[in-house]
Design goal:
single chain, alpha+beta, Rossmann fold, Tumour Suppressor Smad4, 6-stranded antiparallel β-sheet, 17 strands, 39% strand, elongated
Amino acid sequence: MTYKKGQVHFHAAASEEAQEALTILTSQYGQCGPDEALVIVALGGDGTMLEALHKFHQTGKPIYGMNRGSVGFMMNPFRTDKFLERLAHAQSVTLHPLRMRALTKDGTCIDAIAFNEVSLLRQERHAAKISISVDDIERLPELVCDGILVSTPAGSTAYNLSAHGPILPLSANVLALTPISAFRPRRWKGALLPSHVSIRFDITDPQARPVSATADSTEVRDVARVEIRESKTLSVTLMFNPDHNLEERILKEQFLP
């Protein structure tokens, strides 16, 4: 696809570096609304990309990121020259988010989506006690821990990796189930699950051992049950330079010392 000036919507972080990039790019290539744009361009770091995914995925427009932040694993390098040509030659990858349904101890039901991960964390000094079911079959009656997370392949190099979870290739069609500071069972390192399964966490005694659930940046406090599955109806397209392909970058991460 070819792109022209005025067919791009730029979305920038609030940082000085990102705002400076926004000024330069909009002066050279114009700015239009997200609904009229052919592509969304996110300027910032991985947090800005995650924000753009949540804000614009319903438009159906592809998202191309340029790094004006600190990490930028999901971003392309920042360059202003031949920008439209790079967009035209970019490679695409489709991501499916996780759907989270959290039931709080007072009976409130809250839905959210996550492109990186859904994480459960203890809210107070007491360790969380969580049972784990997969497709309505209880697989672990009780995990005593600081928390647990379910990660998509795209999010596997983020919080999941910090919690010693596995890096997942984008084409693997699996989810990572990773404990956070597990106390019992001590040697349980988590699991790899097919992406089509339904995962349920039941909180043991949510009154005495409160737990929160977070889908990317949406936090729900005092949960009693959390259900997670990959969405097959929601998707977003990310664009990368051929020499900065996300699949290749994730593969390289597995061989870093």
